[in-house]
Write a structure and sequence with these properties.
Largest sheet: 7 strands, mixed
CATH architecture of the largest domain: 3-Layer(aba) Sandwich
Structural class: alpha/beta
Number of strands: 12
CATH topology of the largest domain: Aspartate Aminotransferase, domain 2
Strand order of the largest sheet: 1-7-6-5-4-2-3
Strand content: 15-25%
Helix content: 25-40%
Order of helices and strands: HHEHEHEHEHEHEEHHHEHEHEEHEH
Length: 385
């Protein structure tokens, strides 16, 4: 099944796109081509593959599937989400300027501020939920705008269509980190983005057993440049990782529905709980950008952030008492995870910046899994007392 074979619905593409039965044996599952090199009939004459850093049939199938899910012409796989970010930033040169959302994943902030800043790339961290601030941040040297929507961990919703339109007027590339929503609930390329990126580690794989990254685009020039960096830098996933992610993708649509179903019920439960100060979830009408979320997303995902009443010790006590929720970094697996952003995922962001963003010591972030809803509620309730 190819992209051009549309129309097919998402669930059909997730199971079949890029993954026809293997022609030699008829194997239904894509083989793991565990090889580093390929035989050539004559020097320079090969059958599309010569070295597995450059291309591998298992990776090709994986990339084709992701492209289909994002309605993209091209997709490229990397060994991690940050390796994907690294490749994208290599399209810039010293003196170029990047506008990033202020409430950005800690690892993204770190590679921006501690790695590429030293190479002469300038970064501005802006509240991109304010379109006037966003447009005012552009400079003549601005070459890229980097968005997360929802943001991590404050779950702000960015107006992707308006921001990408501004970027086009300013001749800047627009990048959207779509990790929290997956292509099932949000398609940034259809909203005008030039590039969409994912930490595959999270929802797309969905089983907490693979680290990986992916980008997708309809821009042929960007694709060729990024394909060069994928090969030249070499941060590519192993064939086994590609196989495992394709295994996970086959249930992506089913999992995302259950994540969202559980999350909205837990968010409503926490809103009424006396030990909770405030709940942030795009599916709640109390979310300040709920209407925008309904407009550009087909579902609200499985991520919830909330403030527990009290301070750091109250948060610690709660996190140490959960039983079904696992206290761990990352997100998007079938199991429910819970973490403390200020100490864990966003510790690389300076304390004063965390405070300005609202990442206080009583902020908790949850990735709601697909367990039985009543068990998840009971676990939270017992840990809160």
């Amino acid at each position: 099944m190819k992209n051009s074979d549309a129309p097919y619905q998402f669930g059909t593409l997730a199971i079949h796109a890029g993954q026809p039965p293997e022609p030699t044996t008829g194997a239904v599952m894509t083989p793991i081509f565990q090889t580093s090199t390929y035989a050539q009939k004559s020097p320079g004459k090969h059958q599309g593959y010569e070295y597995s850093r450059t291309d591998n049939p298992t990776r090709t199938a994986y990339q084709t599937c992701i492209a289909a899910l994002e309605n993209a012409q091209h997709a490229l796989a990397f060994s991690s989400g940050l390796a994907t970010t690294d490749a994208i930033l290599h399209t810039l040169k010293p003196g170029d300027h990047v506008i990033s959302c202020d409430d950005v994943y800690g690892g993204t902030f770190r590679i921006f501020d501690k790695v590429f800043k030293k190479m002469g790339i300038e970064f501005s961290f802006i509240d991109l939920s304010d379109l006037k601030k966003a447009e005012a941040a552009f400079r003549p040297a601005t070459r890229m705008i980097w968005m997360e929507s929802p943001t991590n961990p404050m779950l702000k919703i960015l107006d992707i269509g308006s921001l990408t339109a501004i970027a086009k007027r300013k001749n800047a590339i627009s990048v959207v980190d779509n990790t929290f929503m997956s292509p099932y609930f949000q398609k940034p390329l259809q909203l005008g983005a030039d590039l969409v990126v994912h930490s595959i580690t999270k929802y797309i794989n969905g089983h907490s057993d693979v680290v990986g990254g992916m980008l997708a685009t309809n821009n042929n020039q960007l694709y060729q440049e990024l394909k060069f960096f994928q090969n030249a830098i070499g941060a590519v996933p192993a064939p086994m990782d590609c196989f495992l992610v394709m295994r996970g993708i086959k249930t992506l649509h089913v999992r995302m529905e259950r994540h969202a179903q559980n999350a909205i019920e837990i968010a409503r439960f926490l809103e009424k709980h006396p030990r909770i100060e405030r709940v942030i979830y795009p599916g709640l009408e109390s979310h300040p950008q709920h209407c925008l979320a309904r407009k550009q997303m087909s579902g609200f995902g499985g991520m919830i952030s909330f403030f527990i009443r009290g301070g750091l010790q109250d948060a610690r006590n709660f996190l140490e008492k959960v039983r079904i929720f696992t206290l761990a970094e990352s997100l998007g697996g079938v199991e429910s995870l819970i973490e403390h952003p200020a100490i864990m995922t966003h510790a690389s962001i300076p304390a004063e910046s965390r405070q300005a963003l609202g990442i206080h010591d009583n902020l908790i972030r949850m990735s709601i899994g697909i367990e039985d809803l009543s068990d998840l509620k009971d676990d939270l309730n017992q840990a809160l007392y």
